[in-house]
Specification:
Length: about 130
């Protein structure tokens, strides 16, 4: 279950509360504080723990579910997804990019140069 100790929101921050909650859950999953398959508190439980409106928590849960971070299993509850959607999305993107690079007759070094340029690598031509 989520604990108030590590999941906090700041009502005075510019970032909306639902977004702070969403980002906090994602950080907990990526940081290993919430393991795949872990049961999350109900919307009402978490709202009470954090002093938020239930609608705020519900919105964060909806967005997390649509992003594949959590899964709702009816009356059983809400759980951390068993697979990381970011890993799956990045693997698909990498596969697509590699295929395109090969179809253009380019190699790994050229592909990496374009990636580095997009990220502003200091050794790239776009930096």
């Amino acid at each position: 279950m989520l604990r108030r100790v590590w999941l906090q929101v700041d009502p005075g921050a510019d970032t909306p509360l639902f977004e702070q909650l969403r980002a906090g859950v994602i950080a907990a999953v990526r940081g290993g504080k919430l393991m795949p398959g872990s049961r999350l508190p109900t919307v009402r439980e978490l709202a009470v723990q954090l002093g938020l409106a239930a609608n705020t928590v519900a919105r964060a849960y909806r967005e997390l579910e649509s992003a594949g971070v959590i899964e709702t299993q009816g009356r059983r509850g809400t759980f951390v997804a068993r697979s990381d959607p970011t890993d799956a999305a990045m693997a698909t993107a990498a596969r697509t990019y590699a295929r395109k690079v090969r179809s253009l007759g380019l190699g790994r070094a050229e592909a990496r140069r374009y990636i580095d340029a997009e990220f502003g690598h200091p050794n790239s031509s776009r930096a």
